[in-house]
């Protein structure tokens, strides 16, 4: 059940659709808000989202693994040679969340997993501050994966609901691994904290999206109702 609270900065109605997500960017004034048992507090102003040509947007709905979801949040990341989006999906049936990573027209559907379950010397060393080597092979969770990407990334800004407060300038070390059958893993290191995500590559068509963003000069595909 959604929770409605007034923004402490502008007074606009702020909707929290998931009780598990404490952070929200106000749609009206872009205040970064955090909800707690004591109420709602402001932690700065989120930077304006830069223009991009992503067809995904807040409010888009789709289906993944037979379950319906809605896009409710986004973090925009940058690195020396470009940028990418991470969209937060909220599933209707159980209230769980997943991430849809979007970079250069490719999409990764990922769910967060406890890093303590990872039994990989290579990833454990990375979590402790080690540097990844592109092309290095890693055996993980019964799968053979290859390190496809490793970069220092900077949070540009955010929107919508999130499990954390994504402040502009926040730096992480991001490593992506992929397998031969489309499986993928992502590790993010922020100082001593490590987040671990597991999933697979998907196409936008697989997600049966509804409510894609209209982009001038781009015709909506047939699969987008």
Descriptive overview:
This is DUF4178 domain-containing protein. Pfam families: DUF4178 (PF13785). This protein is mainly beta and 225 residues long. The chain has 2 domains: 43 residues, Rubrerythrin, domain 2 (Single Sheet), CATH 2.20.28; 147 residues, no CATH class. It is 3% helix and 52% strand. It has 1 helix and 15 strands, in the order ββββββββββαβββββ. The strands form 2 sheets. The chain has an 8-stranded antiparallel beta barrel with strand order 7-8-9-10-15-14-13-12. Strands 1-2 form a two-stranded antiparallel ribbon. The mean pLDDT is 94.
Largest sheet: 8 strands, antiparallel, barrel
Shape: globular
- Class from secondary-structure proportions: mainly beta
Helix content: under 10%
Rg over CA atoms, rounded to whole Å, is: 18 Å
| Span between termini | 27 Å
Q: H/E element string?
A: EEEEEEEEEEHEEEEE
Summed up, the helix count is 1
Strand element count: 15
Which percent range describes the beta-strand content?
A: over 45%
Total domain modules:
2
Mean pLDDT level: 94
Strand order of the largest sheet: 7-8-9-10-15-14-13-12
Instruction: Note poorly predicted spans.
Output: none
């Amino acid at each position: 059940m959604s929770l409605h609270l007034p923004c402490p900065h502008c007074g606009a109605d702020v909707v929290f659709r998931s009780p598990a997500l404490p952070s929200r960017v106000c749609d009206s004034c872009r205040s970064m808000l955090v909800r707690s048992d004591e109420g709602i507090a402001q932690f700065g102003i989120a930077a304006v989202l830069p223009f991009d040509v992503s067809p995904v947007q807040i409010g888009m709905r789709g289906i993944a693994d037979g379950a319906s979801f809605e896009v409710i949040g986004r973090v925009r990341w940058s690195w020396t040679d470009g940028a990418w989006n991470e969209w937060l999906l909220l599933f209707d049936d159980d209230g769980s969340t997943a991430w849809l990573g979007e970079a250069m027209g490719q999409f990764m559907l990922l769910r967060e997993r406890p890093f303590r379950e990872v039994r990989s010397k290579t990833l454990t060393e990375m979590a402790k501050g080690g540097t990844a080597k592109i092309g290095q092979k890693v055996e993980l969770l019964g799968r053979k994966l290859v390190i496809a990407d490793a970069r220092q990334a900077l949070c540009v800004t955010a929107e919508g609901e999130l499990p954390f407060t994504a402040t502009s300038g926040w730096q992480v070390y991001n490593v992506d691994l992929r397998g031969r059958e489309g499986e993928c893993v992502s590790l993010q290191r922020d100082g001593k904290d490590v987040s671990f995500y597991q999933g697979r590559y998907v196409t936008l068509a697989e997600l049966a999206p509804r409510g894609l963003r209209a982009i001038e000069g781009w015709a909506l595909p047939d699969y987008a109702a």
